[in-house]
Amino acid sequence: MTQLSTDTQEMLDSLQTAVAETLERKRRLGQYAVFWENGKPVFIGEDAPHNPDDTASDDQQQAKTRH
Asked: Which pLDDT band, with edges at 50, 70 and 90, does 55 fall under?
């Protein structure tokens, strides 16, 4: 495994902390999160859509109603 420079390790640690805090905040707010796994989105959380293909049409519909 490649040894990271001190600066690079600090940046990586900072990004990992930011992601962990964001995911925890979303969990506490009851919001779902989206991860990429094997080239496909995976929806995690109690309010996550059961059929991810449905979210595209929902997003498009919401965009239309905002204008």
From this structure: low
Estimate to the nearest angstrom the gap between the alpha carbon of 32 and the chain centroid.
Answer: 8
Contact residues for 32 (Cβ-Cβ < 8 A; gap 6+): 26, 43, 44, 45, 46, 47, 48, 49
pLDDT (mean) for 2-28: 95
Q: Quick one: what percent of the chain has pLDDT higher than 90?
A: 60
Question: What is the end-to-end Cα distance of the chain in Å, rounded?
Answer: 51
Question: Are the C-beta atoms of residues 34 and 43 closer than 8 Å to each other?
Answer: yes
Query: Could you tell me which of 18, 51, 46 has the C-alpha nearest to residue 32?
Result: 46
